[in-house]
Amino acid sequence: MEGKMKLHYGDMTDSSCLVRIIGMVKPTEVYNLAAQSHVKVSFELSEYTAEVDGVGTLRLLDAIRACQLENSVRFYQASTSELYGKVVEIPQKETTPFYPRSPYACAKLYAYWIVTNYREAYNMYACNGILFNHESPRRGENFVTRKITRSVAKIAIGSLDCIQLGNLDSKRDWGHAKDYVEAMWLMLQQNVPQDFVIATGEMHSIREFVEKSFKHIGKTIIWEGTGLNEVGKEESTNVIRVKVNAKYFRPTEVVSRLF
Ligand SMILES: C[C@H]1O[C@H](OP(=O)(O)OP(=O)(O)OC[C@H]2O[C@@H](n3cnc4c(=O)[nH]c(N)nc43)[C@H](O)[C@@H]2O)[C@@H](O)[C@@H](O)C1=O
Question: Is Lyase set as a keyword in this record (predicted)?
Fold first, then answer.
C-alpha cells in the first residue's frame, strides 16, 4: 500500500471539506471509521462526540449525495456493540433493541439510524457493522487492553511499579482488529446491503486480562480487599501491582454484553 496511498486533510465537522474530498477522490467504497471513540471521554466531550460521531456521519452521507455518487458508492458505518449498552436480550443479534449507556453510544445510535434511513430513502448501498471490541497493537493507549499490556511491559523492565484501573469486573468480547476489518470489507461485497453483528462469542473480565498479562511476564497476581480498596499483589514478593482508581469508573457502564 505504501506509496499508493494518498492522504487528505479532513474533518467530520467540516461539510465543505468532506464534499471537496469525495468529489475529488470519487470513491467506490467509503468506510466511516471516523469518531471520538473513547466511551469515558464521551462523558466529558459529549457535544463534540455528538458532532463528530453522529452529525459527522450525516455530513459524510450528504457529501456523497452532493457529489451524486449515492448510486455508485458502497458505504460502511462503524456501528458498535455499545448500542446494546444495558442489554435487553441475550445473545444480542441484528434485531436486538438498543439501549445506549453513554454520550458515545447515543451519538452512534443517531449514526446507525441515519445510515439505515439513507439506505431506505435513497436506495444507497449502506451497511452498519455492529462490532464488538476489536483490539491490536495499534489500539490507542488509553483503551484498557493497551493500557494493561503497556503497563505490564513497563513493570517487566522495571520502569513502572503499579497500574491504576477502573472496573475490574467489567466484561468484554475482544476480537482481533485484523479479522474485523476483513468483515467490514466483506459487508461491502454482498449483493444487497445488510447490517451485521461481529463478535467472537466469548467474554472475559478486565481482571482475567490483568492476570493473563502478568502471567506472560512470569508473575502471578493475587487479589486482596474489595471495592476501591482492592489491590492486586505479586504473589512471590507481595508488591502491589494493581490498584483501583475511581477516576476510571464511568457514570454509566454497559451492564452485560453476553453474546
Ligand atoms: C465496542 C466499543 O469498544 C471500545 O469501548 P470500551 O469497551 O469502552 O473500551 P475500553 O477499552 O475503554 O474499556 C473496556 C472496559 O474496561 C473497563 N476499564 C477498567 N479500567 C479501565 C481503564 O483504566 N481504562 C479504560 N479505558 N477502561 C477500563 C471499562 O470500564 C470498560 O468496561 C471502543 O472501541 C468503543 O469505541 C467501542 O465502540
Answer: yes
